[in-house]
Amino acid sequence: MEKSKYLEGVEKKDLFAHGHRACGGCGQALAARLVADAAGENTIACVATGCLEVFSSPYPDPAWRIPFLHSLFENAAAVASGVEAAYKALGKGPVNIIAQGGDGSTADIGFQSISGMFERGHNVLYVCYDNEAYMNTGVQRSSFTPYGARTTTTPMGNRTRKKNMPMIAADHGIPYVATATVDDFRDLQKKVQKALAIEGPKYVHILAPCPLGWGHHGELTVEVCRLAKDTGLFPIYEIVDGKITNVRKIPVKVPVEEYLKVQGRFKHLFKRGVPSEEVAEIQEIANQNIERFNL
Ligand SMILES: Cc1ncc(C[n+]2csc(CCOP(=O)(O)OP(=O)(O)O)c2C)c(N)n1
Ligand SMILES: [Mg+2]
């Protein structure tokens, strides 16, 4: 393939480089880059349909500098399982295999192929980029959409609570599960490397704010992550061999209002600045997390 003009000057170590079409401030683009660079060159990315695949793979300027396989919306984990089995059968490797998908892919349509991959014990890391809705097709609700959030299919605010995927993953008995956000590069990359060093199926769940779908300014993506953690709405922890460990303690607890008010998707919860009763419900969710994980 002819080298694109966009590739001039790209250093070899940028394994997810420029040449992608993500929106400014896209949490998922940042996360994908951090994951690729943490994993290193000896890595194969198996990516489900979704924003990441669409903005990172257009010919002739793909952002990936590692082998990249685009699967369907529902089967990144099944494809990654096949790649791992093929490497084993051919006696090749070792190689890092990272299945990657959005929240819709992970929580909903790809759920059974992830469960199968965990249950069969494939040596694959699954990374979920959680932007809490189906962004690629126009911000429809997924089962990771939080309570109260407005999406195009929940115009009055989502009525259900977010599915707890890290716990569901851990309950498969897999050796490593972790949560991370894109405001703490070092923590995220350490978790990817730790996961890849462990034999068997691993799951890393990354909160990846979407300025378009969440209605925050792109430059606030990192701040939004910090607020998600400091309110207790997105707990940071690892589960190693079934035991919750390395829980990030909240330095100063922040009321959920601070998190909700910077995002357009929660604007309807404040009538003339006054919080509605849904805000109290969301605070209750945060309080339950604080208690459950001892944040
Ligand atoms: C079987 C099937 N149904 C629907 C679609 C359309 N589709 C493509 S991507 C997508 C949403 C992706 O959402 P998510 O996994 O959260 O990723 P995001 O775009 O938010 O990063 C949908 C509904 C599809 N490609 N295949
Ligand atoms: Mg999504």
What does the secondary structure layout of this molecule look like, with pairings?
Blueprint: H1 27-39, E1 43-47, H2 51-56, E2 68-70, H3 76-90, E3 96-102, H4 103-109, H5 111-120, E4 125-130, H6 165-170, E5 176-181, H7 185-196, E6 202-207, H8 211-214, H9 221-231, E7 238-240, E8 243-245, H10 256-261, E9 270-271, E10 274-275, H11 277-293
Parallel strand pairs: 1-2, 1-3, 3-4, 4-6, 5-6
Antiparallel strand pairs: 5-7, 7-8, 9-10
Helix pairs in contact: 1-7, 3-5
Description:
The protein is α/β, with parallel strands linked by helices. The protein has a single domain (5-293), classed as Rossmann fold. It contains 11 helices and 10 strands. It has helices at residues 27-39, 51-56, 76-90, 103-109, 111-120, 165-170, 185-196, 211-214, 221-231, 256-261, 277-293, and strands at 43-47, 68-70, 96-102, 125-130, 176-181, 202-207, 238-240, 243-245, 270-271, 274-275. Strands 2-1-3-4-6-5-7-8 form an 8-stranded mixed sheet, with helices on both faces. A two-stranded antiparallel sheet has the order 9-10. α1 crosses α7 (185-196) and α3 packs parallel to α5. The chain starts with 26 loop residues before the first helix and ends with a helix. The model has no long low-confidence stretch (mean pLDDT 95). The chain binds thiamine diphosphate and magnesium ion (MG). Magnesium ion binds at residues 102-104, 131, 133-135.
